[in-house]
Amino acid sequence: MASALKDIYNVPFIHKLISSIKIEYPPFNGEVLTSAVFDEQWEYRTLKERMRHITLKLNEGLPADYEESLDLLMKVAPHFKNEDLAAIIFPDYVEVFGLDHWELSIAALEHFTMYSTSEFAVRPFILKDLDKMAKQMENWAVSPHANVRRLASEGIRPRLPWGMALQPLKKDPSPIIPILELLKEDESLYVRKSVANNLNDISKDHPELVLQLAQSWIRSHPYTDWIIKHACRTLLKKGDPAALALFGYSGAEGLSVQNFRIENETIQIGEELQFSFAIASERNEPTPIRLEYRIQYAKAQGKQSAKIFKITENTISKDKPLLYKKKQSFRNMTTRKHYPGDHMIAILINGEEKAKLSFIVR
User: Fold this and answer.
1) Residue 352 near residue 257 (C-beta atoms within 8 A)
2) Distance linking the first and last C-alpha atoms of the chain
3) 10: closest CA among 62, 112, 86?
4) Nearest alpha-carbon partner for 60 in 69, 48, 51
5) Which of the 8 DSSP states describes residue 317?
6) Where does the chain hold its CATH 1.25.40.290 domain(s)?
7) For the domain 5-245, what is the CATH code?
8) What is the pLDDT of residues 13-66, one digit of tens each?
9) pLDDT, tens digit, for every residue of 87-143?
10) Which of 131, 155, 264, 316 is the 20 to 30 A CA-CA neighbour of 279?
11) CATH 2.60.40.10 in the chain, residue ranges
């Protein structure tokens, strides 16, 4: 059985943290930290709760002076270069204790992001002084280090998963755009993914802004084209006509779904829904298509919820129908729980529903 993500914080991690700190600060009491961290509530804490718990208990054993403690942790952080997510305790220390020490803290966040990520810790600083931090992000966007350039985009995402929402930027994302302009041709895929995710965030509140930006960026650079496609994924799933047209998907007239079948019209939770269909075209010219299916899930208390799944992007010709066989798992996961009841599955071509069937989950 796979370990829970929160278990990146464990006894070996704390022992490594203690030994690394004692190299730089011999008076540090590791026994006190170990006892304080692994208290009666430890097993019940989530990943971020464990992170914050360690931060608070760690501070109790560090020098009282913030600058002295920060300097110490900046020397310790390189020992955790391969710890990835677990090393976010270092920027978390800055988030908790450094908001009133601007210059020291910003330099530390840049340093710590080299060993993990400061994308969560930077957000309270953005909320405290958006203009100042937007300028700082522009400076980070031209850093020679990819991790720092990614922080410029990821840290200022309006809807960062696991991070606090940046409400001012959800209302007005204009301070973000100059940062993304600097990163739109970045050589690092790590950075480009962040730019695309940032724009996808913005598209949920300001679709017209993202489409306007996409129009101005498209075909300017292969890296930028990749960013645009991923940035528009939510708009494409919603069947936004302008987004679909941007990538050559011109409606669904003359396109049809044929022989749509469900192999098992009643399934148990934990089983797979298996279905098949064909796509045919009456158009004389080869036609680009974006093919998806939407499942209308039964939820608790008689509610329903729809989710769209992408199948493929392809080109169809009049004399060559496309055949598909697919399956969809109904196994419960941490991100999706299934409920018994009536369900519906629909096939979408270029954002338009073309066929649907019902099935039952027991």
Assistant:
1) no
2) 26
3) 86
4) 69
5) B
6) 5-245
7) 1.25.40.290
8) 999 999 999 999 999 999 999 999 999 999 999 999 999 999 999 999 999 999
9) 999 999 999 999 999 999 999 999 999 999 999 999 999 999 999 999 999 999 999
10) 264
11) 255-361
Query: Which residues, in sequence order, are CB contacts of 151 under 8 Å at separation 6+?
Result: 109, 110, 113, 117, 118, 119, 122, 137, 140
Q: Tokens 């403690």: give the residue.
A: 69
- Joined tokens for residue 160: 């960062």
Task: Give just the sign of the alpha carbon dihedral 185, 188, 189, 193.
Answer: negative
Q: Are 345 and 320 in contact (CB under 8 A)?
A: no
Question: Quick check: pTM over 0.90?
Answer: no
Alpha-carbon span 55 to 97, nearest angstrom: 10
Element (H, E) at 56: helix 47-61
Q: Structure tokens of 82?
A: 């391969």
Which single residue is written with the structure tokens 């004389």? 284
Q: How many Cα atoms are found within 13 Å in the side-chain-facing hemisphere of 195? A: 31
Closest CA to 219 of 209, 210, 229: 229
- Rounded distance between C-alpha atoms, residue 44 and residue 26, angstroms: 32
- Cβ atoms 9, 53 nearer than 8 A: no
Q: Which residue has the tokens 């299934």?
A: 338
Backbone CA torsion sign across 265, 307, 230, 317: positive
| CA separation for the pair 352, 214 (Å, rounded) | 22
Residue recorded with tokens 């298996």: 274
**Which of 68, 67, 71, 62 is CA-nearest to residue 18?**
62
298 forms beta bridges with: 304
Provide the residue type at 10 as one letter.
N
Find, among 346, 358, 286, 294, the residue nearest to 322 by Cα.
Answer: 286
User: For residues 346 and 355, what is the distance between their CA atoms, to the nearest angstrom?
Assistant: 6
Q: Do the Cβ atoms of 74 and 112 come closer than 8 Å?
A: yes
Residue type, 267: I
Note the CATH number of domain 255-361.
2.60.40.10
pLDDT digits (tens, 9 = 90+) for 318-356: 989 999 999 999 999 877 899 999 999 999 999 999 999
Write out the two tokens for 171.
């209302």
Question: What is the three-class DSSP state of 285?
Answer: coil
